Amino acid sequence: MTEPAGMKPQRRACYYGDYLMLDRVLSAQAPESARMGRMAHDEMLFIITHQAYELWFKQVLHEMDRIQSDFSETPLDDRSLSRAAKGLERIRDILKFVIGQLDILETMTPLDFLEFRDILFPASGFQSTQFRLIEIRLGLKRETRIALDEKPYESRLQGADRDAVMLAESQASLFNQLEAWLSRTPFLTQGDFRFRDAYRKAVVAMLEADLAYLEGPGAAADSREADARALEKALTRFQAIFEPDSAPGAWRMTPQAVEGALFITLYRDEPALQTPFRVLSALMDIDEAMTLWRYRHALMVQRMIGVKLGTGGSSGHDYLAATAKAHRIFGDLFQLSTYLIPRSALPTLPQETARRMGLVYASEGARP
Amino acid sequence: MTEPAGMKPQRRACYYGDYLMLDRVLSAQAPESARMGRMAHDEMLFIITHQAYELWFKQVLHEMDRIQSDFSETPLDDRSLSRAAKGLERIRDILKFVIGQLDILETMTPLDFLEFRDILFPASGFQSTQFRLIEIRLGLKRETRIALDEKPYESRLQGADRDAVMLAESQASLFNQLEAWLSRTPFLTQGDFRFRDAYRKAVVAMLEADLAYLEGPGAAADSREADARALEKALTRFQAIFEPDSAPGAWRMTPQAVEGALFITLYRDEPALQTPFRVLSALMDIDEAMTLWRYRHALMVQRMIGVKLGTGGSSGHDYLAATAKAHRIFGDLFQLSTYLIPRSALPTLPQETARRMGLVYASEGARP
Amino acid sequence: MTEPAGMKPQRRACYYGDYLMLDRVLSAQAPESARMGRMAHDEMLFIITHQAYELWFKQVLHEMDRIQSDFSETPLDDRSLSRAAKGLERIRDILKFVIGQLDILETMTPLDFLEFRDILFPASGFQSTQFRLIEIRLGLKRETRIALDEKPYESRLQGADRDAVMLAESQASLFNQLEAWLSRTPFLTQGDFRFRDAYRKAVVAMLEADLAYLEGPGAAADSREADARALEKALTRFQAIFEPDSAPGAWRMTPQAVEGALFITLYRDEPALQTPFRVLSALMDIDEAMTLWRYRHALMVQRMIGVKLGTGGSSGHDYLAATAKAHRIFGDLFQLSTYLIPRSALPTLPQETARRMGLVYASEGARP
Amino acid sequence: MTEPAGMKPQRRACYYGDYLMLDRVLSAQAPESARMGRMAHDEMLFIITHQAYELWFKQVLHEMDRIQSDFSETPLDDRSLSRAAKGLERIRDILKFVIGQLDILETMTPLDFLEFRDILFPASGFQSTQFRLIEIRLGLKRETRIALDEKPYESRLQGADRDAVMLAESQASLFNQLEAWLSRTPFLTQGDFRFRDAYRKAVVAMLEADLAYLEGPGAAADSREADARALEKALTRFQAIFEPDSAPGAWRMTPQAVEGALFITLYRDEPALQTPFRVLSALMDIDEAMTLWRYRHALMVQRMIGVKLGTGGSSGHDYLAATAKAHRIFGDLFQLSTYLIPRSALPTLPQETARRMGLVYASEGARP
Prior knowledge:
Four copies of one chain form a homotetramer.
Chain A: H1 16-19, H2 22-25, H3 32-35, H4 43-71, H5 78-99, H6 101-105, H7 110-114, H8 129-138, H9 159-170, H10 174-183, E1 189-190, E2 193-194, H11 195-215, H12 224-242, H13 255-266, H14 271-305, H15 316-326, H16 331-335, H17 351-356, H18 360-363
Antiparallel strand pairs in A: 1-2
């Protein structure tokens, strides 16, 4: 932020405070407790922590704008994909980082919180429109949401906020875009080669070997039955990739998209799949960070207000802890791990496929 | 670690590698995959991450040794208490820090883990004796543990390890020691003043006002009933501090201990209670860090092995996530927040009580 | 932020977005690159990171308000001191945390920064008034500052900002307040006992033993002379605590204050010194965090703009790295470590002193 | 670490403690203070923190093994490069993470350290052979090292340790390997197009515009001369990429390697350069993390032992702070930022070059 660089400015000199609009940002802390004549020192911390969250949420949405724009391209250019991967990695870094803000907020004790807690009623972090937008745009579905009060979540939002989330709900989410892009994964067939057939055979063999093992003398007798049931279920879910009707609802993504994701995961070292794999990894990181944030938040609420009830008969802690489990978006990607097989057992790809996944210059023999 | 300081050493010169016994520490990585002739690169990361955990666990236990020794004193000297508070804060710092080691471990992908995962069977982090000892010595009760396989947890440990945990179970835990110490909290009565009576009145009034509010026109009609039930329950649990028979099992600690903890929390700024409050805070931090670690661990397991089954018919993820909820030790301290009231409504303590909570020099007028 | 608690609100319902004034906070990002018609995607990240810093700086100043108000009391009540210790610990936590924001900012590459860097000229983080206020109020002296451009630092600030820093410079800093409070440390004399004399003897003996060692056969011949010189210097600096004229400028604090700090450090386990020691520790942590932040910042600047020149002929990197070294505020506290001696060699305090450092209830035999 | 997976184990059951060789790892803490009959509680923390560092250093070296092996391939396959990038990113993550271990160690106060500090003499972290190996293998040159005691650093190491570092010094470092690989960067010429000529023209124009600006009325008069000198110097250093004799020593890498690194940095979005750019970024991250670690370490030493002298007449703090500045390895990559120009001013590459940097399947029109 310091010096002239090549192009000389034909414009007003820039001043730090003006540029950052600090008059707005730093005048936006108006503790209610002060307004009511009983200033609670820690309300400032409470306000500032929440505002810092909202600032970072705005940044996340700014990255989402470009990522979703990139993902709306068909075909998706490799340069754009690289940019999207970096955007997702930045979102991941932000989400992981801001979890730590709760540690700062927790330097406020429950007794200090009590000094102004009642003034805030019924405001709630639940009303963070930007956080709802992040969820929606990533792909959290309306029907997946755990209800609070048995009312639709947007009933707590005011006019413009409600409009914003409803609009977002009507548009394609990143989940939808990802699904479409994964469904178009090339390389899955080549001449007579069908990746799905080759891989299916390998996985079924593996799972059946596991089943056989459970019937053998090495397995723990007391858990044999439960294990067997679980394996059967895993097998069914796997088959659903290829015969969707066999286990409806086993996956959120289409079978084609699951197949694409599987392929990328297995052959991630091929030049053409390196960046796609970064995309999938970053999405799992994001899902994990959101989940951890919810859970950490749940712990803080419990510490701050005990088991006291929120509106609606369920404590904030329980609600938040439940969303940590239920509001996963890219669960399919985690589920994939169930069906991975060791590299040594992977189907060998046709040479032509391997060639097509390479870089032009290397295929022409120019590799340095 | 550098220079002479006052006392001159009459002894052998110290060498870094010898002092740290690096010959042992750095020769303790023997990847099974290498032994079996198919070296998996990431097994080293797996081993080293776990060893780093075990090193830190040893440090935690080392701190526990002194803390528990200090807490076994009756009366507990203020100097010892200060030392114990610092020890607990160090444990908290360690536990919060090592959660981050999972981020390092997660740079290993599921596919890479698969290269050596089967070799490890049936070893499991579940068999970390030191972690079990930390849980036990903090105060996790045998009967609280979620069973894996419907077998007692120690059935998976070998001889000496099993002996160590059984011995620890037979000894006083920090929870027990804390409970005893809290029960001896002075200051609760002074002349006619009974803290319990004064405070009870204040809390009951508060909760009843909440109940009345629920019946008024301002409350959300649809949740009124659930809220009312919840408040009744909170009231019952609070009464149990004073009439233990009224709600058996509402608290893990004795009513006397709960009362002591409450007093410390409310009047924590008094010189005599500053360090006791640090002890309670650090214990909550530790409980929270353990919980968060379990949950983070659960997420990692899910990512690494999907929904595949562990031995015993329940996935590692589900088991770990369940322990995050169930294996809390100092839950009573979190529950206390339910019964806090604003400072302005706190019963005024007798002057004599306030004096006794002060420092000698200040009470003699020498404050600087 | 969820539920009613005791006192029922007689007021307007609180809405999350209104309460946090999000209309202001979230409308304060106006990338200059967009205004000039060539939107640079990462300028948003640049703006938001800086705004997040400013929010946290506001919180730090908010804590400083209360801490400085508490420290302006004479005598300083033990309850207020405890509150000040917590405030300082919170500042420490915030400063350590926000260093991590630079990791987020560094997800922007130098090439991306270049897209809008020239537009910002001559704005600079150097113009953060709040950061200057933090430095000044902690106690950074005008004459200690490394000059940039050979102009006084405030020459780069505009009207109101300049007024704010000049006002702050005219008021007592926390350093001044701390110094005054330390100078009043009680317990240093008791009857015939003079801590200064007893301790002086012990330290001189230790340093002289070190000197003797250097002349003996065990010492490394080639460094003997340099070591000896250094020890002589340390001894002189130590003597300056007791004979200020012997080494003017050896300490920033008055000898009385240094003596007080030394006493607190040595006998920190005594009840009367536990909280004072937390204050000193937190101040060292804060000094360290500020230093680390400057250094980390210097590294980032180097990465972002290379060795290109800032206005003033010295690169931003070098300037920042130099301030990391020069702008220390509580260096005296670090220097104290030079003069610590092992607990076993500490002068025994008179019994009466020990009694006066205890708590009233314990001195009356009521310890639990 | 939990369950059977496809291949059934034909081998002994694995036990957690045996697998991790915990008998060795957890028996390697032998506090000297205990051996001398005056156990210092915090010596355990000191030992364990250092051992944790050594464990992680072993992991870093394990990653270096594969990375250096990959980088020794000519040509370097794109799959191997991807693997190396991941390895470097893991090293970065580890180095950034372990800085935090110093926060844990700093929960030990200087007074507590004093209880056993003298016993350790003359052992020193300086003797960490693994850390020396990391430095050497990354590319720290012998002649760049700041001398301590005016003796070669290995003079403090014992036999086998000394042999290990001397062997490492005789082998190719990652710096050497990187330099060779960068020198082979393809794409720099194509038909008549010479990247060096096109880019040189653009940079010189930019720097000359800066110089002209300094002579104009808009520039700060008082710094004009210094700025001009600095720009001249920057220009000379830049020319040295193309005419090495014009400014010997301006770069550590060969001009060819610098040119390659520049090209990768500028066109990093091209598929063929995405992974190379990750390699360069990770190396800068590693350099930065090492530097920060050294500086953080310097601060800790200052806090722990004040300005007391180490052997050799220079304090540990000053030595460490100096190495933070001097022991940089990939400084050339940071210096590159000086010569970046805005994307809009970048020379347009020949179409054929762009095609060759793409992926085969995309060039054949199969992009999804």
